[in-house]
């Protein structure tokens, strides 16, 4: 209902919408650090300048990262796995042209995508267990940890905003003159929502303690 650019979208318009609504919308669905991915795609795809094969490889990988992140929310009626598979095939073809080894089989890649949502939910509730034999952490591990911290921060921020909204709703019902902000949820919904949030915050606290 409130949108920077109305559909139907071109790719340029879509990337503009991503950037415009990133903090308010998309940053709550995927890690906010992926804004750099959107900016990278926008920088290279929204121009008439040609680019070399290394840039193509970068754009394909960034596209995969973005699609993979959104897969944790939904498969979007099967459209997202198809798009992901298409980008993966392009990566493979580019690797074959350049004579580079293909990093991952397509079927395996798509399977990883479909399992991503379940894996992320498990990771969110399972403590990180390290093998005692691992003496050194790889750089990729640190990057993964940083992304996980961003995701956790986004979840906590989302919980706080929801609690704030429900609190406003409750105070408005108790004293309409105290708050003028209009909301759509009923008093019962707000009260039940707060109960669920209390349980969620308790789980988060226990997880942090672990």
UniProtKB/TrEMBL annotation:
Superkingdom to which the source organism belongs: Eukaryota
GO cellular component: nucleus
InterPro entries according to UniProt: SWT1_Regulator
Protein's recorded name: SWT1 protein
Organism encoding this protein: Neodrepanis coruscans
